[in-house]
Design a protein that fits this description.
Length: 254
């Protein structure tokens, strides 16, 4: 039986986001549900937003006009917040995707979650921690930017898609401790923990946790690279659904 997908409202702060992420952004959002509402906010008379305009039609995103009434004041934020509250009460939604690096949306995210809906935040690594913590999950847009393909004229041979640059995570003590604690806290009496439970608990404890932050596309790849866990699969032909993790039986120095 196919699981019913979540209905999501995507609200984008055009002043605080880059049009270069839009394709990868929509692909990422599709992992969490269906973008039933797609709106982007800004002053579309401002030439600084012209880079967005070519993407709106192709991705069926509705531009919402908001004039800047006062110099130095961001009217876009207020318009987004008011619109989001209207959507919260008038539409049958399961969650919101807030695309911005602005801390002004912290209280909005909290209010939406108080109503029992999920909040997925998308912003740059400079995003204030308060906004990160207010979201169920926060994805850094730096992880979404894809490498541009070379034109056939310059490079007749198709270049492979580059993977995230891997770093030596075994020297990242805070990551090692986080992973070990989560595995141990979600383990059964035999010490084995279900990979899906690990993933969910990591998201609950740290909204911006993402394997891509460490150079790995999947959590399983990150866990394998750490080197302090055992991996067990009940069914070798299945994917994450039958994968279990356990801390190795060895003395640790931390």
């Amino acid at each position: 039986m196919i699981k019913e997908q979540k209905s999501l409202a995507v609200i984008i702060d055009a002043d605080n986001s880059q049009p270069s992420i839009i394709e990868a952004l929509m692909e990422e959002i599709a992992k969490y549900g269906v973008a039933s509402v797609k709106r982007i906010y800004g002053d579309w008379t401002d030439t600084r937003l012209k880079g967005w305009k070519s993407h709106l039609l192709s991705h069926a995103i509705q531009p919402m006009q908001q004039f800047g009434y006062t110099v130095g004041k961001n009217a876009t934020d207020s318009a987004m917040i008011i619109d989001a509250m209207d959507l919260l009460y008038t539409e049958k939604l399961d969650g919101f995707c807030i695309v911005s690096s602005d801390s002004d949306f912290t209280r909005l995210a909290q209010r939406i979650r108080e109503s029992g809906l999920s909040v997925y935040g998308f912003g740059e690594k400079k995003t204030p921690k308060a906004f990160l913590a207010a979201c169920d999950k926060f994805i850094y847009t730096e992880n979404l930017r894809k490498v541009k393909k070379s034109s056939p004229a310059k490079s007749p041979v198709k270049s492979p898609v580059k993977s995230p640059v891997k770093i030596d995570i075994t020297k990242n003590e805070s990551l090692m401790v986080l992973l070990r604690n989560v595995v141990e806290d979600t383990a059964d009496h035999s010490g084995w923990s279900y990979l899906t439970h690990i993933s969910q608990t990591l998201a609950n404890r740290q909204a911006d946790f993402d394997p891509r932050n460490y150079g790995y596309n999947k959590l399983m790849d990150l866990i394998s690279a750490v080197g302090i866990f055992e991996v067990k699969k009940d069914d070798p032909f299945s994917h994450d659904k039958a994968v279990f993790i356990r801390c190795k039986r060895q003395k640790r120095s931390y």
